[in-house]
Specification:
- Strands 7, 8, 9, 10, 13, 14, 15, 16 and 17 form a nine-stranded mixed beta sheet that branches. A four-stranded antiparallel beta sheet has the order 3-2-5-6.
- A hairpin with a 2-residue loop joins strand 2 and strand 3.
- By secondary structure, it is an alpha+beta fold.
- Helices cover about 20% and strands about 30% of the residues.
- The chain folds into three domains: about 55 residues, Structural Genomics Hypothetical 15.5 Kd Protein In mrcA-pckA Intergenic Region, Chain A, CATH 3.10.290; about 90 residues, Pseudouridine synthase I, catalytic domain, N-terminal subdomain (Alpha-Beta Plaits), CATH 3.30.70.580; about 80 residues, Pseudouridine synthase (2-Layer Sandwich).
């Protein structure tokens, strides 16, 4: 027996939070009866309808995509821009775990496994994410020290787990910085550097937990192995 909102999210229909909203709104029925109580438990034999449609409990799929620039990390877009799900050849209802900005490139995971998505995005599980940022000017040694000690963004301190200056271009007054963080606030990398007076010209995520881009070119993807999925689930146990 599992909680109804978890079953809906795990089926890839929507997030657990949205599933809870649907339940409270009376949009979900179990075996012909409307259910509004959160925490209601269901079994694999129960007939669940969401917005009048039968909930299909799909096989879980997991993909790693090298997101190109100019692509949105959503499943729908009013401006009809290219979406991350457009790159994945599957008939499953997948969605990205977390987001990368429209102009940010790099590693993003897509799945229909709501339980894993919730586990990885929960702030208490501290999944490390590594980015490479090209800054609009050379970072001073003093600012490097400040960054390593942590800087405040909207009153909350962000302390990177690692900071490394990869390359310095004095002629064009720019530099490449590799930075690893565990938190996932919106635009956090750009805002961290902005707090020190730098602008991010280019940003790429090169690693998520133990996963890396390897040799994937921009726009390419691959399926995750069972071993990799099990290892991702380990983050929820930390």
């Amino acid at each position: 027996m599992e909680r109804l909102q978890k079953v809906i999210a795990s089926a890839g229909y929507t997030s657990r939070r949205k599933a809870e909203e649907l339940i409270v709104a009376g949009k979900v029925s179990v075996n012909g009866k409307i259910v509004r109580e959160l925490g209601t438990k269901v079994s694999g034999d129960d007939l669940i309808l969401v917005n009048g449609e039968s909930l299909e409990r799909e096989d879980k799929v997991y993909f790693l995509l090298n997101k190109p620039r100019g692509v949105v990390s959503t499943v729908s877009d009013e401006a009809n821009r290219k979406k991350v799900i457009d790159y994945i050849n599957t008939n499953k209802r997948i969605y990205p775990i977390g987001r990368l900005d429209y102009d940010t490139t790099g590693l993003i995971i897509l799945t229909n496994d709501g339980a894993l998505a919730n586990a990885l995005m929960h702030p208490s599980h501290s999944v490390e994410k590594t980015y490479v940022a090209k800054l609009n000017r050379v970072m001073t040694p003093q600012d490097q020290k400040l960054l390593k000690q942590g800087v405040k963004v909207e009153g909350v301190k962000c302390i990177p787990t690692r900071v490394k200056v990869r390359k310095v271009d004095y002629e064009h007054d720019s530099c490449i910085v590799e930075i690893t963080i565990v938190e996932g606030r919106n635009h956090i990398i750009k805002r961290v550097f902005e707090s020190l007076g730098y602008l991010v010209d280019k940003l790429t995520r090169i690693q998520y937990g133990f996963l890396t881009l390897d040799n994937l070119k921009s726009g390419e993807y691959r399926a995750l192995s069972i071993k990799e999925v099990k290892k991702l689930y380990e983050y929820s146990k930390k």
